[in-house]
Amino acid sequence: MNAARLLDRTGLPPRARQTVDEFEKEHDTYFSHLVHFDPQLLESLHAPGALPDTIRVASAGVPAVRERMSTVTEVANLPEQREADRSRYLQALLDIYGLLPVQAQHSASAPGTTVIAPEREGRILAECLAVLPRQRGWTPHAKRMPVAGGLLVGVDEWLPSQADRLVIVDGVVASGVTLMTMLQLTLRPGADVEIFTCHSTRQGALALARYAEQLEVSLTLHVGHVSGALNGKFYAVAPDAPDQVLLGDVGDTISPVTPAFPPRGPRRDPA
User: Which whole-number Å values give the CA distances from 61 to 56, 58, 73, in the listed order?
Assistant: First the structure.
């Protein structure tokens, strides 16, 4: 299995460059890192297999997690989401974090820990959980883009490097490519990383475990529930009802009912 490739934007094909430009404009940022997962790599990362012991699924021993996930899926599939629905959705996600046997706040408070909470849902949830420290806390944009049958992940300049201990807080894991990119760009070999998330597909969880092994880092995934499957666009859907999303767009759903985040500073323009 080969690692994803770090690309130089000047060498991108015109269509890929246009996709990157459109995403940067939409999110008002500039991707200083572009990491490409080609179709063959994704196929090998997402291959069927048993979940290793390093993937700790709370719902296996806490039935209340499944109840909260039912609320999340119900709201995600409403034809129209009212403020009360969004608040109920957000509270269900926060409840799932509270039901994890290991708490993100505890892991993030260990000395020497760097915390990453990607925009938007990771950052919002980490703030609600009081996980982001004033120092060593990062909230990068990490956006996946379809390119040449695979996925290209753009990460902006708000990103640490060479961490020995890392905690990542994110809302959900679908394909896993954004978090795998975080691992590749930030960790030294031999580093320890804990990921906290409400939900993951089996493919995404397996991909994270396999990629961490390849990078020679020690990973533990604390996840509320593992279910669903990836569709052709790499979104998590119900296997027996592919038109039913399991969580929808978490950031779009919860951002209207959470306080605005202070600006991180001026956007870096391309050279």
Answer: 10, 6, 20
SS3 readout for the chain: CCCCEECCHHHCCHHHHHHHHHHHHHHCCCEEEEEEECHHHHHHHCCCCCCCCCEEEHHHCCCHHHHHHHHHHHHHCCCCCCHHHHHHHHHHHHHHHHHCCCCHHHHHCCCCCEEECCECHHHHHHHHCCCCCCCCEECCEEEEEEECCEEEEEEECCCCCCEEEEEEECCEECCCHHHHHHHHHHEEEEEEEEEEEEEECHHHHHHHHHHHHHHCCEEEEEEEEECCEECCCCCEEECCEEEEECCCCHHHHHHHHCCCCCCCCCCCCCC
Residue range 217-243: mean pLDDT, rounded = 92
pTM value?
Answer: 0.92
Q: Is the pLDDT of residue 265 over 60?
A: no
